[in-house]
Design goal:
Blueprint: H1 2-26, H2 32-35
C-alpha cells in the first residue's frame, strides 16, 4: 500500500512538472488565428 501511494505521488508530480513546462514554453504564444490575422486577402487564388 505504501509503495502504491509513493508511485501515485511520483506520477502526479511528474504530470504536474510536464504541465508546468508546457505552460512555460507555450503560455505566451499567440494562437494561430492571431498569427494569420491580416493574411486572408493574400490567400485568394486567381481565376483560371
Amino acid at each position: 500500500m505504501l509503495r502504491e501511494a509513493a508511485a501515485d505521488f511520483l506520477a502526479r508530480k511528474d504530470a504536474e512538472e510536464v504541465d508546468r513546462r508546457y505552460e512555460a514554453g507555450y503560455g505566451g504564444t499567440p494562437s494561430i488565428d492571431d498569427e494569420l490575422e491580416g493574411w486572408s486577402a493574400e490567400g485568394v487564388w486567381p481565376d483560371p
